[in-house]
Amino acid sequence: MKLDDDIHNYYEHLVLEHISQLGLDQTKSADYLADLCCLALNQVPPRYIRYEVDMAFYLPQSERQQMEMNVEYAIEKAIKFLDQPKSRQDEA
């Protein structure tokens, strides 16, 4: 079994989905998006799954909404960090 093919963090899907909803995948560079994903994913707890369908059927709607809110906040915070002047990033 290879973990990278069989198991993944569900938050990765949510982060990419929200980035697409914001249109950032159309306006930002690949490097910016990679940094954004890393910063956002490091702020949320991992939620490992094998199949997307598992989350669709077994995740209560209230928990899904909380996960989406967590992602929105994490991405907002990551964008603020990435968009601040370079000299302030060095201080952080």
Features:
single chain, 92 residues, mainly alpha, two-stranded antiparallel sheet, 2 strands, 75% helix
Description:
- The chain is mainly alpha-helical and 92 residues long.
- It has one domain.
- The chain has helices at 3-6, 10-22, 24-27, 30-41, 52-58, 61-83, 86-91, and strands at 8-9, 48-49.
- Helix 2 crosses helix 4, helix 2 (10-22) packs across helix 6 (61-83) and helix 4 (30-41) crosses helix 6 (61-83).
- It starts with a helix and ends with a helix.
- The mean pLDDT is 89.
- InterPro entries: ComFB.
- This is Competence protein ComFB.
- It comes from Alteromonas lipolytica.
* Arithmetic mean pLDDT: 89
Overall number of structural domains: 1
Query: What is the strand arrangement across the widest sheet?
Result: 1-2
The largest sheet is: 2 strands, antiparallel
Order of helices and strands: HEHHHEHHH
Helix content: over 70%
Number of helices: 7
Class by SSE composition: mainly alpha
Task: Detail the poorly predicted runs.
Answer: none
The shape, in one word, is globular
In percent terms, what proportion of residues is strand?
A: under 5%
Number of distinct beta strands: 2
- CA-CA gap between termini: 40 Å
| Whole-angstrom Rg | 15 Å
